[in-house]
User: Fold this.
Amino acid sequence: MPKASPAASTPAVSSPAARAAELRKLLDYHNHKYYVDAAPEISDREFDRLLEELTTIEAAHPELVTPDSPTRRVGGKPVDELTSVRHRRPMYSIENSYNPDMLREWDTSVRKALGRGEPVTYVVELKIDGVAMSLTYEGGVLTRGATRGDGETGDDVTHNVRTVPGLPLRLHADPPPKLYEVRGEVFLTRADLIRINRRRVEEGDKPYENCRNLTAGSIRLLDPQEAARRTLRFFAYALGEVDGLTISSHRQSLARMKEFGFPVNPHTAAFDTIDGVIAHCAKWNTKRHDLPYDTDGMVVKVDDFGQRERLGYTSKFPRWARAYKFEAEQAVTKLARVEVQVGRTGKLTPVAHFDPPVRLAGTTVGRASLHNADEMARKDIKVGDMVVVEKAGEIIPQVVRVETAARTGAETAFEFPANCPICNSPTRRDPDSPFVYCSAPRGQCGGQLKRQLLQFARRAAMDIEGFGEAIADELLAADLVESLPDLYRLTKDDLLKARPPKDAKKAKGKWADNLLEGLAGSKDRGLARVLAGMGIPHVADSMADILAQEFLSIDELMDAPVERLLQAEGVGPERAAAIHDYFQLPAVRDMIADFKELGLKLTEEKRAVPTAGPAAGGSPLLGKTVVVTGTMARYERAELEDLIRSLGGKPSGSVSKKTDYVVAGEKAGSKLDKAKELGVPVLTEDEFDKLIGK
Assistant:
């Protein structure tokens, strides 16, 4: 890394090659000062002028372009596809611990393996919630960036890695090692997520859900210019294969990474006792929310490489490292009021509103579902209560309990409304369930219709790009949609009527064009997706797929008697009767006739299912029940469940003794706990891919 700033003024040289070399050095220095040291010395505009000058020189003299040129950060030409590459050394997962006792057990096993009395130093780092990456430098120049993949092989994403600001395209070393492989985490800051989502909403697109998912998608983009616009970040935290350099400890490796120009997380500490490690983790359980990026735990590593070599590896994990996952946070606040939401079936759901809102897992929580009347009675929840709130799996807010000792007598019991808050129709409670419903006929309540639209457009159903809650509200307010088929009758003028443009830029209605393209593209999703979106009683996504595969066309399904429906897997008498009655409704048959007229695909191709199991060299999932939970890096849940079905497996939404596997991603919650309790095998995303031979 340069020790002093290179001269910023244009030198008295006439050679384009000399000026290009100087500009590269200058831009590299200021890029490092801005993104790594957080101590910029020039303005953004001055930096842009230097970059523009280098770009002009390289355009006039293509032979001067180098692999480590700062101009490569803005992105080159798109690649046709991602290719797989094999890691020189495996990129292992790290086993999780969930409480201090588990860390102490691990510490005992480490000290026992090394020999009692031998001192051990642990290095503790933040567990960044991003995407693991391996970077290879040959002769000091970045030659490859690859995702972790299954640990043995990953995707070559060099074209996108080059766009990450602050990541050195050439090592700050003279001479550099012959081979230097660095592992680390690519991530996005929450501020960048907000920036990107603000632009997407303005253009009528759906916002991204979280930093990690957006990072995983961004690093695998085929277009590096789009990746550059995302402003990905990187922290280096480990070494892979190295040739030409001797390193004996983790702390030494981090120091050398910083010397070579890598951003290294500054919040790293070392301890000689496990008690020191545990106290440090407890401190960061609270402090982490002050960071500009997401973390979901800490990583504890044995510092000495010689000790690591003696400790070795299991088949999945290094014995010398352990991750400590943060517990779900809780907060106490006042339940100020309860609002009722009307669902797609007319079900009324009570929603708690908190005053003040509370900070949990890095976000502000102002409300949470109270589910139903029985749940409120079980927890004895009253309006005005002080309640304990947490995020289940750090994702879904929920009321855990009431602080009854804090009651003043001013609290009041919540009564469900006698009339629907949307359409004013009378409400009714089913005698055999805890739910209250709007009595309006299907499609005649705006609250029901909104939820039907969102159910239909969601990713696991018709996956209509650009459609979200705000669009649904606008369409309903403008009286443009009275049924699901009306979505496909919308025109650009209709959409601009629902959301009048506020300025000349938005008058072009790019968001409207995007939504219309999303609607047109959804017409070919097929029968299973249509059934998943229609909201058929007792038909969730997995059952929609079963029915589509059983009947292959909407006409066969509509005309099937109860006896025929009972032949489908998982369809019992109650479900068969509900499905049959649903398709006899005149409104449903009219809707399907409209779908046909509008060109929706209402058939399904028979899926080829393996007939042989693993013993005969066939599918390892044939006949297996698999539950998917948590957030995956490479799969959407619907995509993963489709893959399970194609391999002869049965996706399920709940864990039981009959479950064969649970595939658990990040922030897996109660389903993962249930699997551990029942002894059901749990697979990571990479282990699942390895199981199916992908």
Q: What stands out?
A: The domain at 96-325 is CATH 3.30.470.30 (D-amino Acid Aminotransferase; Chain A, domain 1). Confidence is low (pLDDT under 50) at residues 8-13. The first helix runs from residue 16 to 35. The chain has six domains: 16-74, 96-325, 330-437, 441-522, 527-598, 614-691.
